[in-house]
Structures are given as C-alpha cells and as structure tokens.
C-alpha cells in the first residue's frame, strides 16, 4: 500500500506524519515540489508482458506527462527476486544522491521505497502499483528495492544519461529505515 512518512532528519525512530491516503500523500509532497499521482492502465497488463505491451497500456498518460515535463525517452525496468544481481542492483541507489534531471517513475507492478532529504525533513514514500512519483532535479534522495526486489517501473528521461546518480557522500541513508518488507494497510 502506498505510504508517506515524514521524519525530522535528526530522528529516524519516530515519524511526525504518516498516511496511506493518496490525496493526502499528493498534498504533502506538493509542498516540497514533488508530484504524486495514480494511473489506471487502458488495458490489462499480464504478468510477463513485454516492455512494448507495458508502454502501450499507459500510452496516453506517458504522452501527457512527457509533453508536460519535456521527456524524450521512456524505458521499462523490471526486477524480480530471482535476479542473480539483486544485491548489486539494490546497492546502486541505497546511498544519498541526486540527478541532474527530474526523476519520474511509474510503478506498473510491485513496490519500492524512495526517501527524500529536503531541508531538515526526511520524506519516505513507499511507491506501489499504479503510483507515479516525480522528484525534482537536484533533490537529494535514495531508493531501496528491498532484499527480495519485485517491481516493474516506467522511467522517463530528458537525456540518455538522466538516470545517473551524483552521490553526496553523506551517511544519512544508513540512519533511516530500510525497505525490508512491503507494508500492509
Ligand atoms: C524505480 S526505478 C530505479 C531507481 C532509480 O532509477 C533511482 O534513481 C533511484 O534513486
Ligand atoms: Fe535516484
Ligand atoms: Ni498502516
């Protein structure tokens, strides 16, 4: 289930805010310039669908958001718990980093945990199937797919190297919760 928790960056033990409500999550994130919305597929996406089938199911929303935000490319990333490189893939985005373009991801299936460090607050967002998140360029954040990663996501790019992370070298990500298991409602 989608969830937003907001912490002081000094206190990872006690969230100051927690919600599973999509409208409330969107409202809180809008205050820091992060966009959150939910999409419905225009046709069912079967397990094992090809990237082309996934993109076709969301074509209208993909075209809308690409036109609004200037994206030129989309791709589909798919990670399952039996991926032999799952530990390496998980480690890639676990430390605090930022990107030079907006990070826009749509979860077709499965889930993952984005955590953003903005001012003196930490915003932890569990993204699940049907969630779109748009994190502005330069926002420091990390992403945890968990020890048994399972997600299919559409990624949007302005430039071919837009996904590259620039690491800040801080240890803040190690002090905040990891994504051990998807949360229940
Ligand atoms: C959900 S897509 C994989 C993560 C990613 O691209 C990124 O930049 C995480 O911070
Ligand atoms: Fe990132
Ligand atoms: Ni709950």
UniProtKB/TrEMBL annotation:
Its cofactor is Ni(2+); Fe(2+). Binds 1 nickel ion per monomer. Pathway: Amino-acid biosynthesis; L-methionine biosynthesis via salvage pathway; L-methionine from S-methyl-5-thio-alpha-D-ribose 1-phosphate: step 5/6. Ni(2+) binds at residues 97, 99, 103, 141. HAMAP family: Salvage_MtnD (MF_01682). PANTHER family: ACIREDUCTONE DIOXYGENASE. This is Acireductone dioxygenase. It comes from Luteimonas viscosa.
